[in-house]
Each structure stands twice: as C-alpha cells, then as structure tokens.
Amino acid sequence: MINKWVHHMYQFECGLFLTLNRRFDRAKLNWFFRFITHIGGARITIGATAMLIIFLNMPYQLWAMQSGISLVLSHLVVVLFKKLYPRNRPYLSVIDARVVDNPLRDYSFPSGHTTAIFSIITPYVLHMPLLSLLLYPLAVCVGLSRIFLGLHYPSDVFVGCIVGSLFGFLVVFFY
What's the whole-model pTM score? Predict the structure, then answer.
C-alpha cells in the first residue's frame, strides 16, 4: 500500500518536473533561468551577505548578520539531508529530461540553491514585510530554475524553501 502511494507520488512529481523542464528549448526562458539560478548559488549568496554585513549600518547590518547565520545553519542541514537521503538528480532518472552542460553530480535532495535564497531573504522579509513583494518572486524563480534546468525535482525545491525559510525565521526569533 505504501509502496503504491510512493510510486504514485513519484509519478506525479515527475509529471510536474517534465511540465517545466520540457520548455528547455525556449531560448528566452533558458537564458532567464540560467541567469537567475546563480542568485541562489554560493558565490552570490555568500558574497552578497558578506558585503551587506560589511557595508550596512544598524539595524540593516543586524539583518544581514541574521541572514548569514541562517545561510550557514541551513546549509549544514542541506549537507546532512543529502547524506541521509541520497537521491539522484532527475536528469539521471527521468526519461527525456533536459539538462544544462556540465550538470551537478551530487545528490539532489534538497535544493541547496533554493534553501540558500530563502534562508537569506527571510530575515529581511520578517523585518520589512514590504520586501516580500520583491524577494519572494525572486526566490521562487530561483527554485523554478532548478527544476527547469533539470537539476531538481519539485519536492527538492519545496523542501529547500521550507528549510531555508524555517532557519531564517528561527534565527530572527532567537537572535
């Protein structure tokens, strides 16, 4: 019974994955998602957070520090999850999946890019909710880019969103 349910959920997820991934050949979408995905990458998230910590004044510097702590803690959870739940990336498992050149080879669950972007934006959104109008669409686009580029399943992105947001919230709450 459980195996049947898991199989149906996997089939549903593969369908969602392919719905977005099949648009890979559209040049403008491909360019956009290849660009936006880097905003959730290590260079941008770490670099931008470090720059904001260095150059901002209080209280914004505090927000940037909370963002950085959230990023570090959430990344530790991502590393742990990838070891505990090794899941192949969809381009290795889903027939007809399209993928970028030189794709990542590590495990896909959860999405580190999605976790990173949500972990760094959450403190800012909690302190200044109006920023959510700009930051959440950006973060969602980073998550969608990971599916579009063939690197993550929708559940990888969803869990990354939850983990990143949770750590952003916890750091603000306890800091």
Answer: 0.92
